[in-house]
Please model this.
Amino acid sequence: MAGGVSAPPLAGAVCEAGGLGFLAAGYKTADGMYQEIKRLRGLTTRPFGVNLFLPQPDHADPAAVEVYAHQLAGEVAWYETPLGDIDRGGLDDGYDAKLAILVEDPVPVVSFTFGCPSRDALEAFARVGTLTVVTVTTPEEAAAAQWAGADAVCVQGIEAGGHQGTHRDGPQSDGPGIGLLSLIAQVRETVPLPIIAAGGLMRGAQIAGALAAGADAVQLGTAFLACPESGAHDLHKQALTNPLFVRTELTRAFTGRPARALVNRFLREHGPYAPAAYPQLHHLTSSLRQAAARTGDAQGMALWAGQGHRMARELPAGQLVQVLAAELAAATAALTEGSAP
Ligand SMILES: Cc1cc2nc3c(=O)[nH]c(=O)nc-3n(C[C@H](O)[C@H](O)[C@H](O)COP(=O)(O)O)c2cc1C
Model:
C-alpha cells in the first residue's frame, strides 16, 4: 500500500506473524525504496515482497487536465494552497532504476500493478530467484501476465480499496469491473497460474470463500489500514468505521486513475468530471490533500478503502494475522463438516 501505509513496521509485523508483508515502491524514488528494504531486513528475516507501479503511457489530454485544474479553484481558495506541479515525478516513477536495484540485490517476491512487465524484466527476476506476481483485473490481463512469464497473478476484484490495477487505463476504459468471486473463477479457467485473491476481504470466513472459489492465497489491504503499524493518517484510520462515511466509490478525482475511496466531499464534487490523467492529477491534487490532512479535514483527503471498510479492526498487525488465521481455520472446519456424509 503506497502513500506511506506499507512502511517497514507494518510489513515487518505481518512477516513476523507468518504473513507475506509488502513494501510499496510506488510514489518513491529508487533510493527511497532501497532504504526501506534495508530497514525491513533489519526487522525480519522472513520472506517479504516489494510492489512496483508500471510506468504509464502519456494518454492524458492536456486541455482536460487544465479544465480540471480550473474546476479546483474553490479548493485552492479554501485550503489556501496552490495546486501541485503536474510534471513533478514524471510518468515512469524511476521504474528502471528500481528494477536494477531489485535484480542486483534480490528480494523474495516482486509484485506489479498498473500493467504487465516485459518478459525480459520477469526473466531477469527468475534468474535471481525472485518470484513475480502481476496484478490483474480481467481474464485477458491474466493471459498477458502468463505470456510475459509471471509466477502468479494477484486477482483484484472491483471491491478492492485503492487503485484498480487495470493494465491500460484511459478515457475508453471506464468499465464497471468484475466482482472478486466471479473474477477468480474466470481467471482459473483462463490461466494455470497460482491466484492471489484481493478485494473486500476482512474476515477469515471470506478468505475461506475465496480459497473455495479457486484462489491459492489472499491479499488484504483495508483490513490492515487501521493497525497501529500502518502509516495511514489517523483521520483515514478513524474514517474507516465512522458512520459518517457509509460507502465507497471508484473515482479518478484524486489521481486521474480509478481508485476506491470512502465517499467524501472532494470525491462527490470532483469525481463526476475528473479526466483519465494519471499521474498528472495525482501531482495536481497532492498539495490539496496534504493541506486537508494538516487542517484535520477528512472531507478533502483521499480516504482509500475497500468495500469491507466498516469491518476494519484496530489490532496490532501480527495479532490481526493470527485472528484471521484462526477465523479461516474455523470456517474451513465448518465447511468440511458441512460436506461430511
Ligand atoms: C491505502 C491503499 C493503498 C494501496 N496501494 C497499493 C499499491 O501501492 N500497489 C498495489 O498493487 N495495490 C495497492 N492497493 C491495493 C491492494 O493491493 C489490494 O488490491 C486491495 O487493498 C485489496 O482490497 P481491500 O483493500 O478491500 O483488502 C492499495 C490499497 C489501499 C487500501
Notes: DSSP finds 14 helices and ten strands in the chain. The pocket of flavin mononucleotide is lined by residues 1-3, 5, 24, 26, 51, 113, 135, 156, 159-163, 165, 198-201, 219-223, 225, 304, 306, 308 (CB under 6 Å).
